[in-house]
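Please check our next protein.
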Amino acid sequence: MTDPRATSDDAEPRIGRSLWSDAARRIGRDVPALACLAVIVVYAVVALSVGFLWPNWTQQVDYDRINQPPSRGAVLGTDEFGRSVFEKTLLGAKVSMTVGFLANVVAIPLGILVGAVAGYYGGWLDDLVVWLVTTLSTIPGLVRVIAIRFAFQGVVLWEGTPLELDFGGLPGIVLALSVTGWIGTCRLVRAETMKIRELDYVTAARAAGRRGTAILLRHVVPNVLHLGIINFSLGFIGAVQAEVALTYLGIGIFGVPSWGQMINAAQMDLVVGRWWQITAAGGAMFLLVLALNIFGDRLRDALDPKLRTA
C-alpha cells in the first residue's frame, strides 16, 4: 500500500555528487580559475617543448647584437652575448617549472604519508614527528634550503655509470626543496587525520576488525588528499621563488638559462638604462606566480568540504 505522505523526492532519491566531481564543477564555472589554469598549461607546454626548439642556445653568440633594446627582430631585446632575451626567458621557464614540479612530487606525498601516520597512530610516533617538524620550522625556510644545498654540493652518485647523478646542479636544488617542502603539508594532514580517526565510519571499521594500515589507506588518506593537491599548487610557488633566489645568490643552477641568472646578470643594467632583461624575467615569474596563487585559492575553495556543504 502506497503511503499518501510519500513525495516524488522519496520515490526518486537524488544522487549526490562526490567531493571531486563537485570541485570540478565549481572550477569549470569559475572563469578566473580557468584563465589561470590556461596560463599554467601554457607555461607547462613551453617547459616541455622549448628544449627542442633551441637545443644549442647557450652556444649562440652574436657580437653585432649585444645589448640591443626590444625591436622587430628581437621582441624583448638581446643580452650581453647578443642572444634573444625572449628565448632566454622561455628557457628559464623550463628550469622553474621543472624545479617546481619535481620538488613537490617528492615533498607532497612525503608530507601526506608522515602526517597521516603520525595523526592516526599517535603515541611516541606522533611525538617524534611533532618534534622533528617543530625543530625544522624554527629554521627559516631559505636557510634550510641553503644548508642542505651546501651539504650535497659536489656529491655524485653512481659516478661513471649511465645513472650518474650530480647534486651540484638541478638535482641538488630539487633535493633541497623536497627535503624541506614537506613540513607544511605534514602539519595540515596530521591535524586533519586526528579529526578523521574519531569519526563514526573509522570507528566502525575498527570494530569490524580492519587493520590500522587498511583503515589508514582506505578511509584516512583519501580524505586528506585534497590538502595535498592544494599544497602542491602553493608549494609550486615557493619552489619557483626559491630557485630564482638561490640562482640569484650564485648557489643555484648553472650552465642553463634561468630567471635567477637573468636577474643576477641584469642587476647593473638598470644603471645604464638596459631594462629589458630584468623586466622579462620578473614579468614571466610574476605572471606564473600570480596564476598559481589565484588558481590555488580557487582550488582550495572548491575542495574545502565545509564550503562544499555550505
In short: The longest strand covers residues 156-157.
